Amino acid sequence: MKRILATFAGLLLASGIGLSCSGNNSPSSPSNTPTPVNPPCVDSLGHTCTPTVTMTSTNTFTPTPTITPGPLNVTAPITLTTGGYAYTTVDISSTLTINGAVTIDVGNYFNLASGATIIGDGDGYAARTGPGANSGYGGGGHGGAGGASGAGSDSGPANDLAAGPTLMGSGGGGAGAGPGGGLLTVNALSGPATLNGFISMNGNNGAKGANATGTAGGPGTGGGAGGAIYVKADTIVFNGGTAANGGNAGDGGHSATGGSYSASYGGDGGGGGGGGIILLLYHTSLSGSGTMSVTAGAGGLAGTGNVNGTAGMAGTAGSSTQNTY
Questions:
Q1: pTM assigned to the model
Q2: Residue 17 within a domain
C-alpha cells in the first residue's frame, strides 16, 4: 500500500490516518462525533431544568438536570415529603401537607392565605421512635416532656432547641401509640412571610387499651409529641393560627370477672404527649394577632374493674416564641 510521508514542524503525518490540520496545527474533531442535544425537562413540581451534557468514552451523552427554582402555587392539595425545597415565591390557597421534616427556602415572599392550611399532624416520628421516645406507655417528648403512664416512670424526655428547632415530635410509647408531629421550616430572609391561614404540626392521640373478661384490661398507649413550626423572615404578618400540641394518651381497658379469676384489674392509662416548638423570627417587623398553641396531651384514664387501673399523667407544654434575629 502506497504511503505518503511528510514532515512539517517535526510532526509526522501519514495520509492513511484520516486527520486534517487547521492553521494552528490543532486536529479537528472526528467527523462522526454526534452533536449533543439538550432536551427540555421539568421536575415533579413544575420547575424548569437546565440539562448539562457529559460525553463518555463511548460517545454516550448523559443529561444531568440542574433545577432552576420557580414559584410554588398551591391551589389544590399537595404533599411535600422530607427534604429541602427552594422557590422564588410561595402562594398557598389550599392544603399543603408536610410529611416528615421539610425546609422551604424562598427567594422573595411566602404567603399562606386566609382559609388555607399547612398540616403535618402525626407525620413526625412513629410510635416508640425519636429522641423523646420511651420504652413503656408514656407520652413522647419534644419541646416539653411526655407524661408517664399509670405503670410508672416511662415519660419521654424533652429535646431539641426552642431557639432553633431541627427535630420532629417523637412518638408515644406502646404498640399503636400516637406518632409525633412533623417539622416545618420556612426561610424568607429577603421578603415578607404572611401567615393568615392555619399551620398544624400536632402529635396524634394514643390508643385505648383492650377490654377483657377474666384477664386484666390492656394499657392505654402514649400520645405523640407536638412537632415544630419555625418561620424566619424579614417581616412577618401573622393573623392566622399555629399549633404544635401533644396528643392525648389512650385510656386503660376495662376488665370484668370471668373464668378462674375472682377479681378483675383495669388497665393503666397512657401518658400524654409533650408540647412542640413554635418559633417566629423576624428582622424588620412582626405584626398581627395570630395564635400559637403548644399544649401538652392529657393522660389516659384508668380502666375499671374490681381493681381499677392507674390513670396516666399529662405531658408538659412546649415552647412558643416571637423574636428578632
A1: 0.80
A2: no
